[in-house]
Design brief:
Layout: H1 6-17, E1 26-27, E2 30-31, E3 35-38, E4 43-47, E5 58-61, H2 64-72, H3 79-96, H4 100-111, H5 118-131, H6 136-176, E6 180-184, H7 199-208, E7 213-218, H8 226-236, E8 240-243, H9 248-253, E9 259-262, E10 266-268, E11 273-276, H10 279-288, E12 293-296, E13 302-303, H11 309-312, H12 321-324, E14 325-328, E15 338-341, E16 354-357, E17 364-367, E18 370-372, H13 377-380
Parallel strand pairs: 6-7, 6-9, 7-8, 9-12, 10-13, 12-17
Antiparallel strand pairs: 1-2, 3-4, 4-5, 10-11, 11-16, 14-15, 17-18
Helix pairs in contact: 1-6, 2-3, 3-4, 3-5, 3-6, 4-5, 5-6, 6-7
């Protein structure tokens, strides 16, 4: 295990004090992030994503339990954002109890909230690696600074992903000499990260560079994260159209999709991509229609220990009520979103949250370091 001296802790402090305050995405014309902190009161603030797109509300988190609940309930969602939120959960717990026992228990509690997203476990491992060698009295301040740096690094990473994805979209635009039609699944925008997003960062970069793009937004049942993507697109002024999940293949057959661009929650070293349920079907349709399929993600999403993603990744099975209900507004009623039952309680329900797209269906993996063929991941990221 690496050790961390008082001198290295001081270096960490200097680095964090110089952290870049990057703010890019907009809500009602104002730049914001999906997570931020109040250093004076040691509280963390997040956007309650379960209220979007009907209401923009923020919640404050002041302890480990509240952070764990926010992740588990998907008030906070998206692999990179989950990792940063979990790190803040460790930081909050270290202010309450900085002992070895408390650190181990906090890591265990947060690690159990969402088993599939590898960024969560990467962030927790990084916190343990940095904090465990410190004297307990140093852990609270070190954890807070380390987490803020992790958040800033996520922003810079996602912007770099966007720049590499921009090059892909620009090349396609030059080839087509018309607007590029991109189909995306789930939400891989700034709401799923600290800022910019992963897959959507590529689209934001292209739009801001004057490249005409149009986004086909999958609804992404059962949690309808496509609503979040559509909300982001509208806020940023990107042309888009919301579609039901099963429309993608039809659009591809009729030449209305030029590329598929998604995020990821975990990627094996041979290029298999675990992402929101339904991604595999889009990849199959794309392959059948000779349409390129890209996944955009930070290096931390690549699990170099993973060999057979289909058999080794634990696929989260979520609550059946996500399938039995939808969240919506009653027409002609006060604007307060509420769950509505669409299936009786007697019918059995299965609700796997993710699926695995085999590397053979993936054209390229876009990370902050460039665009990689799936076959090149093992050598580029040996672990």
């Amino acid at each position: 295990m690496n050790t961390c001296s008082n001198a290295s802790f001081r270096r960490l402090t200097i680095i964090c004090n110089k952290s870049h305050k990057l703010l890019r995405m907009r809500v009602n014309g104002r730049h914001t992030r999906s997570i931020w902190s109040d250093d004076g009161n040691h509280r963390v603030y997040v956007i309650d994503q379960t209220r979007l797109p009907f209401a923009f509300e923020t919640i404050s988190l002041s302890n480990l339990g509240e952070v764990a609940h926010a992740i588990r309930s998907m008030q906070v969602r998206g692999a990179p954002l989950i990792g940063v939120a979990a790190a803040f959960g460790i930081a909050l717990e270290m202010r309450r109890d900085n002992s070895d026992v408390a650190l181990a228990a906090a890591i265990s509690t947060l690690g159990a909230t969402r088993p599939t997203a590898v960024n969560l476990h990467w962030a927790l491992s990084e916190m343990q690696r940095q904090l465990a060698p410190l004297a307990p009295r140093q852990r609270a301040d070190a954890a807070w600074l380390l987490t803020k740096q992790m958040a800033d690094d996520d922003v810079a990473t996602n912007e770099a992903i966007g720049n590499h994805g921009l090059a892909v979209i620009r090349t396609m635009h030059e080839k087509l000499a018309r607007p590029v039609n991109v189909l995306t699944h789930c939400n891989a925008g700034w709401l799923a990260t600290v800022d910019w997003g992963t897959a959507l960062a590529c689209i934001y970069k292209a739009h801001d560079a004057g490249i005409p793009v149009h986004v086909w937004v999958d609804e992404t049942r059962p949690r309808n994260q496509g609503l979040l993507t559509a909300w982001e697109m509208r806020e940023h002024g990107v042309p888009h159209t919301y579609i039901v999940d099963n429309a993608g293949g039809h659009l591809m057959q009729h030449g209305k999709v030029d590329m598929v661009l998604v995020g990821a929650d975990r990627v094996s070293k041979n290029g298999d991509v675990a992402n929101k349920i339904g991604t595999y079907l889009k990849a199959l349709a794309a392959s059948d229609n000779s349409i390129p399929f890209y996944a955009a993600l930070p290096n931390s999403t690549i699990d170099a220990t993973l060999i057979d993603a289909l058999r080794e990744i634990e696929i989260e099975e979520r609550a059946e009520m996500e399938v039995r209900t939808v969240i919506g507004l009653q027409a002609e009623m006060p604007p307060d979103a509420s769950p509505m039952l669409i299936l009786d309680r007697k019918t059995p329900v299965a609700n796997p949250a993710f699926d695995v797209t085999p590397a053979r269906l993936v054209t390229g993996i876009i990370t902050e370091d460039g665009v990689f063929a799936p076959t090149n991941l093992a050598s580029a990221f040996p672990g």
